[in-house]
Amino acid sequence: MSTETAPTADRVAAPPPAGWEEARSRVYAVGLAAALPTLSRPLTDTDGLTLAEPLTARTDLPAFPTSSVDGWAVRGGGPWRVVGRVLAGNTPAPLSEDGTTVEIATGAMVPEGATAVLRVEESTTTDGLVSGTPRQTPEWRQPGEEASADEELLPVGTPIDPAVIGLAASCGHDTLRVRRAPRAALLVFGDELLTAGPPAAGRVRDALGPAVPAWLRRYGCQIRPADVVGPVADTLPAHVAALRAALTNADLVCTTGGTMHGPVDHLHPALEALGADYVVNTVAVRPGFPMLLARVAGADGRVRFVAGLPGNPQSAIVALVSLVAPLLAGLQGRPMPVLPQATLAEAVPGRGEHTHLALVRLDRAAGTAFPVRHVGSAMLRGLAGADGFAVIRPGTSGDPGDRVPIVPLPLLTGERAS
């Protein structure tokens, strides 16, 4: 690594900003190339993680013929003589004689030799004989009706939620092979920030320190209160020390502020001092233009990442959905997020040669998107009432009725995106 002082060589002109779609693809690819290690975890400890192996059925589902109703398993024509009872969890003796029946509970194994199951509510019992007319449609589930033994049910890269856990349990799995959850840290830059109370006397309240960790958790990261540091002093040595410490344990370090080249913007020199190389350095998107993603080789040979989020709050969230979300998808071995589409209910202006990410509220039933108010790059009021960002591509504007991609804001842990 190089020294921790500011580089003295003449700066090379910065390359042009990456296109927004190109930047997403680029960071996803580097994340996938650095996908996190796999491990086996108990089934009950996998919620929010990602399948590292296909989920397969360990046996036929159902594994045996199973009654779908309470009633009578009968053989031949009626009336039927009652010869026993079958409850769930037992293996019944075969029905070997026509005209016989056993009482059967929902979920119980249908005895060999049964020709039908008669619903209890459609039967009568007189003098120990059961009468009734079984329905033509079989009232039991056949082996393999849901899945065959060794059939692939879900592919590698599937996010694990309670539904997946339940399916895995029904197949007989006690553990799953998963990707380790990404470990994240957050460094808040800016001497002007207050961490308590209302803004006053030229100082503003830090809104990103409390909010960004919650966003990261919704993307599947582990981040503890001790992993959030700041405000970090506006000096180069302080920035380098904070980054080096955070990178010791984190797979991803997010920073807020300092992504430009102002008199107290030390992120770029700090990254150079740490030997980092840029994956993306600025993106042609508004808001959020001065976002970046860099990678740093760790002493253990694993690559760590630094995501530079702009200091303006809404711009920082644009950087999260633009760079951090696809990076984390790659690190977790998940597919590249596919953007849903919606129809614009109102006009949304373009931003020239930049992609415009415009905050919108969705009417999911109608499939429409409504622009929200209070959407300045330093504002959070509009974000608090929004569902995501409408993507207005470079050189275009959004007219009412246009179908446009939507970048959804991450939902609560375990929920699926719409």
UniProtKB/TrEMBL annotation:
Q: This chain belongs to which protein, by name?
A: Molybdopterin molybdenumtransferase
Quickly give the catalysed reaction.
Answer: adenylyl-molybdopterin + molybdate = Mo-molybdopterin + AMP + H(+)
Q: Which GO terms describe its molecular function?
A: metal ion binding; molybdopterin molybdotransferase activity
Q: What is its EC number?
A: 2.10.1.1
Which InterPro entries does the record cross-reference, listed alphabetically? MoaB/Mog-like_dom_sf (IPR036425), MoaB/Mog_dom (IPR001453), MoeA-like (IPR038987), MoeA_C_domain_IV (IPR005111), MoeA_C_domain_IV_sf (IPR036688), MoeA_linker/N (IPR005110), MoeA_linker/N_sf (IPR036135)
Mark out the compositionally biased spans (Polar residues): 123-136
The alphabetical list of record keywords is:
Magnesium, Metal-binding, Molybdenum, Molybdenum cofactor biosynthesis, Transferase
The protein's superkingdom reads: Bacteria
Q: Which residues form a coiled coil?
A: none
Report any Pfam family annotated for this entry: MoeA_N
- Protein function: Catalyzes the insertion of molybdate into adenylated molybdopterin with the concomitant release of AMP.
> What family is this?
Belongs to the MoeA family.
Pathway listed for it is:
Cofactor biosynthesis; molybdopterin biosynthesis
Which coenzyme or cofactor does it need?
Answer: Mg(2+)
UniProt-annotated stretches for the region Disordered: 1-20, 123-150
Q: Span of the secretion signal?
A: none
Q: Which SUPFAM superfamilies match?
A: MoeA C-terminal domain-like (SSF63867), MoeA N-terminal region -like (SSF63882), Molybdenum cofactor biosynthesis proteins (SSF53218)
One GO cellular component term: cytosol
A biological process term (GO) from this entry? Mo-molybdopterin cofactor biosynthetic process
Q: Which residues form the MoaB/Mog domain?
A: 185-330
